[in-house]
Amino acid sequence: MPIKSRIRTIPDYPKKGIMFRDITTLLKDPVGFRLVIDQISQHYLEHGINFDMIVGMEARGFILGGALSYTLGKGFIPIRKPGKLPGEVIDQEYQLEYGTDKVEMHTDALEKGTRVLLVDDLLATGGTAMAGAQLVEKVGGIISDMAFIVNLPDIGGQKKLEDKGYKLFCLTEFEGE
Ligand SMILES: O=P(O)(O)OC[C@H]1O[C@H](OP(=O)(O)OP(=O)(O)O)[C@H](O)[C@@H]1O
Ligand SMILES: Nc1ncnc2[nH]cnc12
Protein backbone atom coordinates (compact mmCIF):
# COMPACT_ATOMS: atom_id res chain seq x y z
CA MET A 1 0.00 0.00 0.00
CA PRO A 2 1.48 3.42 -0.90
CA ILE A 3 2.19 6.01 1.76
CA LYS A 4 -0.71 8.26 0.76
CA SER A 5 -3.34 5.51 1.24
CA ARG A 6 -2.18 5.07 4.82
CA ILE A 7 -3.02 8.71 5.71
CA ARG A 8 -6.53 9.25 7.06
CA THR A 9 -8.56 12.39 6.30
CA ILE A 10 -10.86 13.79 9.00
CA PRO A 11 -13.13 16.58 7.71
CA ASP A 12 -13.87 19.68 9.85
CA TYR A 13 -11.03 19.17 12.36
CA PRO A 14 -9.97 21.26 14.26
CA LYS A 15 -12.35 23.77 12.61
CA LYS A 16 -15.17 23.56 10.07
CA GLY A 17 -13.81 23.50 6.52
CA ILE A 18 -10.40 22.01 7.36
CA MET A 19 -9.62 18.60 5.85
CA PHE A 20 -7.26 17.24 8.50
CA ARG A 21 -4.66 14.85 7.04
CA ASP A 22 -3.97 12.52 9.93
CA ILE A 23 -0.60 10.72 9.81
CA THR A 24 -1.22 8.65 12.96
CA THR A 25 -2.68 5.90 10.75
CA LEU A 26 0.53 5.90 8.70
CA LEU A 27 2.87 5.89 11.71
CA LYS A 28 1.12 3.13 13.64
CA ASP A 29 1.80 0.77 10.73
CA PRO A 30 5.45 -0.26 11.15
CA VAL A 31 5.78 -0.88 7.39
CA GLY A 32 4.35 2.60 6.68
CA PHE A 33 6.66 4.33 9.17
CA ARG A 34 9.68 2.48 7.81
CA LEU A 35 8.75 3.40 4.21
CA VAL A 36 8.58 7.09 5.16
CA ILE A 37 11.98 7.09 6.85
CA ASP A 38 13.64 4.94 4.17
CA GLN A 39 12.32 7.03 1.26
CA ILE A 40 13.30 10.38 2.77
CA SER A 41 16.72 9.06 3.84
CA GLN A 42 17.33 7.59 0.37
CA HIS A 43 16.41 10.87 -1.30
CA TYR A 44 19.08 12.74 0.67
CA LEU A 45 21.72 10.05 0.29
CA GLU A 46 21.14 9.58 -3.47
CA HIS A 47 21.04 13.30 -4.29
CA GLY A 48 24.12 14.07 -2.24
CA ILE A 49 22.40 16.99 -0.53
CA ASN A 50 24.70 18.09 2.28
CA PHE A 51 23.65 19.22 5.72
CA ASP A 52 25.14 19.02 9.21
CA MET A 53 22.09 18.93 11.48
CA ILE A 54 18.38 18.14 11.42
CA VAL A 55 15.94 20.67 12.89
CA GLY A 56 12.45 19.36 13.71
CA MET A 57 9.26 21.33 14.35
CA GLU A 58 7.20 20.43 17.45
CA ALA A 59 5.28 18.17 17.70
CA ARG A 60 4.82 15.95 14.69
CA GLY A 61 8.13 17.03 13.17
CA PHE A 62 9.88 15.41 16.15
CA ILE A 63 8.67 11.95 15.15
CA LEU A 64 10.11 12.31 11.67
CA GLY A 65 13.20 14.27 12.71
CA GLY A 66 14.26 11.83 15.42
CA ALA A 67 14.13 8.85 13.09
CA LEU A 68 15.91 10.72 10.26
CA SER A 69 18.66 11.89 12.61
CA TYR A 70 19.31 8.24 13.38
CA THR A 71 19.28 6.97 9.78
CA LEU A 72 21.28 9.89 8.38
CA GLY A 73 23.70 10.12 11.31
CA LYS A 74 23.04 13.81 12.10
CA GLY A 75 22.33 15.61 15.36
CA PHE A 76 18.78 16.75 16.13
CA ILE A 77 17.69 20.25 17.20
CA PRO A 78 14.13 20.85 18.42
CA ILE A 79 12.09 23.95 17.61
CA ARG A 80 9.44 24.07 20.33
CA LYS A 81 6.19 25.76 21.26
CA PRO A 82 6.73 28.61 23.81
CA GLY A 83 8.00 27.97 27.34
CA LYS A 84 9.36 24.46 26.78
CA LEU A 85 13.09 25.05 26.27
CA PRO A 86 15.17 25.63 29.43
CA GLY A 87 18.00 27.77 28.01
CA GLU A 88 18.07 31.21 26.41
CA VAL A 89 15.75 31.27 23.38
CA ILE A 90 14.81 33.34 20.34
CA ASP A 91 11.21 33.25 19.14
CA GLN A 92 9.20 33.72 15.98
CA GLU A 93 5.44 34.23 15.52
CA TYR A 94 3.60 32.74 12.56
CA GLN A 95 0.16 32.08 11.03
CA LEU A 96 -1.39 28.59 10.85
CA GLU A 97 -4.12 27.25 8.55
CA TYR A 98 -6.26 27.34 11.71
CA GLY A 99 -4.81 30.07 13.97
CA THR A 100 -1.56 31.77 15.04
CA ASP A 101 1.29 30.42 17.08
CA LYS A 102 4.86 31.05 18.20
CA VAL A 103 7.94 28.83 18.17
CA GLU A 104 11.26 28.99 20.01
CA MET A 105 14.80 27.69 19.55
CA HIS A 106 17.83 27.80 21.84
CA THR A 107 20.11 30.69 20.85
CA ASP A 108 23.13 28.39 21.14
CA ALA A 109 21.56 25.46 19.22
CA LEU A 110 23.62 26.07 16.06
CA GLU A 111 27.08 27.29 15.14
CA LYS A 112 27.20 30.02 12.47
CA GLY A 113 27.33 28.44 8.98
CA THR A 114 25.71 25.14 10.08
CA ARG A 115 23.75 23.61 7.19
CA VAL A 116 20.32 22.40 8.25
CA LEU A 117 17.67 19.99 7.00
CA LEU A 118 14.37 21.31 8.43
CA VAL A 119 11.70 18.60 8.85
CA ASP A 120 8.00 18.50 9.62
CA ASP A 121 5.16 16.09 8.92
CA LEU A 122 3.05 18.39 6.77
CA LEU A 123 3.25 21.58 4.70
CA ALA A 124 0.06 23.68 4.51
CA THR A 125 0.47 27.51 4.59
CA GLY A 126 4.21 27.18 5.11
CA GLY A 127 3.97 29.41 8.19
CA THR A 128 5.52 26.86 10.53
CA ALA A 129 8.40 25.97 8.20
CA MET A 130 9.04 29.65 7.43
CA ALA A 131 9.17 30.46 11.16
CA GLY A 132 11.60 27.56 11.67
CA ALA A 133 13.80 28.77 8.82
CA GLN A 134 13.79 32.32 10.23
CA LEU A 135 14.96 31.04 13.63
CA VAL A 136 17.76 29.00 12.04
CA GLU A 137 18.87 31.97 9.94
CA LYS A 138 18.68 34.45 12.87
CA VAL A 139 21.48 32.52 14.60
CA GLY A 140 23.54 32.21 11.40
CA GLY A 141 22.43 28.76 10.18
CA ILE A 142 21.76 27.92 6.54
CA ILE A 143 18.66 26.01 5.36
CA SER A 144 19.96 23.39 2.91
CA ASP A 145 16.61 21.69 2.36
CA MET A 146 13.20 21.04 3.89
CA ALA A 147 11.48 17.63 4.10
CA PHE A 148 7.81 16.82 4.69
CA ILE A 149 5.68 13.70 4.48
CA VAL A 150 2.61 15.56 3.15
CA ASN A 151 2.28 18.63 0.95
CA LEU A 152 -1.04 20.49 0.57
CA PRO A 153 -0.19 22.64 -2.49
CA ASP A 154 -3.68 24.19 -2.65
CA ILE A 155 -3.00 25.99 0.65
CA GLY A 156 0.03 27.75 -0.84
CA GLY A 157 2.95 26.85 1.42
CA GLN A 158 5.03 25.19 -1.28
CA LYS A 159 4.85 28.26 -3.53
CA LYS A 160 5.58 30.62 -0.62
CA LEU A 161 8.68 28.68 0.41
CA GLU A 162 9.95 28.11 -3.17
CA ASP A 163 9.45 31.81 -3.97
CA LYS A 164 11.79 32.56 -1.04
CA GLY A 165 14.35 30.21 -2.60
CA TYR A 166 13.96 27.23 -0.25
CA LYS A 167 14.25 23.71 -1.68
CA LEU A 168 11.68 21.13 -0.60
CA PHE A 169 11.18 17.39 -0.69
CA CYS A 170 7.67 16.02 -0.01
CA LEU A 171 6.76 12.33 -0.12
CA THR A 172 3.12 12.76 -1.09
CA GLU A 173 0.47 15.41 -1.65
CA PHE A 174 -3.26 16.02 -1.48
CA GLU A 175 -4.34 18.37 -4.28
CA GLY A 176 -7.89 19.27 -5.26
CA GLU A 177 -9.36 16.69 -2.92
O1 LIG B 1 2.28 24.86 6.93
P1 LIG B 1 1.50 25.28 8.14
O2 LIG B 1 0.21 26.00 7.77
O3 LIG B 1 2.30 26.07 9.11
O4 LIG B 1 0.97 23.97 8.87
C1 LIG B 1 1.76 22.86 9.13
C2 LIG B 1 1.95 22.65 10.60
O5 LIG B 1 0.69 22.41 11.25
C3 LIG B 1 0.77 21.23 12.03
O6 LIG B 1 1.22 21.44 13.31
P2 LIG B 1 0.37 22.08 14.48
O7 LIG B 1 0.70 23.53 14.58
O8 LIG B 1 -1.07 21.72 14.30
O9 LIG B 1 0.98 21.45 15.77
P3 LIG B 1 1.33 19.98 16.28
O10 LIG B 1 2.45 19.44 15.41
O11 LIG B 1 1.79 20.28 17.66
O12 LIG B 1 0.11 19.12 16.19
C4 LIG B 1 1.77 20.38 11.28
O13 LIG B 1 2.32 19.36 12.10
C5 LIG B 1 2.80 21.40 10.85
O14 LIG B 1 3.74 21.67 11.87
N1 LIG C 1 -4.99 20.13 6.88
C1 LIG C 1 -4.11 19.79 7.82
N2 LIG C 1 -4.03 18.50 8.23
C2 LIG C 1 -3.12 18.14 9.18
N3 LIG C 1 -2.27 18.99 9.77
C3 LIG C 1 -2.33 20.28 9.38
N4 LIG C 1 -1.59 21.35 9.74
C4 LIG C 1 -2.04 22.41 9.05
N5 LIG C 1 -3.04 22.08 8.22
C5 LIG C 1 -3.22 20.73 8.40
Automatic annotation (TrEMBL):
Catalytic activity, EC: 2.4.2.7
Biological or metabolic pathway of the protein: Purine metabolism; AMP biosynthesis via salvage pathway; AMP from adenine: step 1/1
Signal peptide limits: none
SUPFAM superfamilies: PRTase-like
GO molecular function term, any single one: adenine phosphoribosyltransferase activity
Cell location: Cytoplasm
Chief place where the protein resides: cytoplasm
Residue stretches making up the Phosphoribosyltransferase domain: 25-142
One protein family per Pfam: Pribosyltran
Keyword Cytoplasm among record annotations: yes
Catalyzed chemical reaction(s): AMP + diphosphate = 5-phospho-alpha-D-ribose 1-diphosphate + adenine
Keywords: Cytoplasm, Glycosyltransferase, Purine salvage, Transferase
InterPro entries given in the database record: Ade_phspho_trans, PRTase-like, PRTase_dom, UPRTase/APRTase
HAMAP family for this protein: Aden_phosphoribosyltr (MF_00004)
Its biological purpose: Catalyzes a salvage reaction resulting in the formation of AMP, that is energically less costly than de novo synthesis.
Subunit structure and binding partners: Homodimer.
Family, as annotated: Belongs to the purine/pyrimidine phosphoribosyltransferase family.
Name the record gives this protein: Adenine phosphoribosyltransferase
Organism the protein comes from: Prosthecochloris ethylica
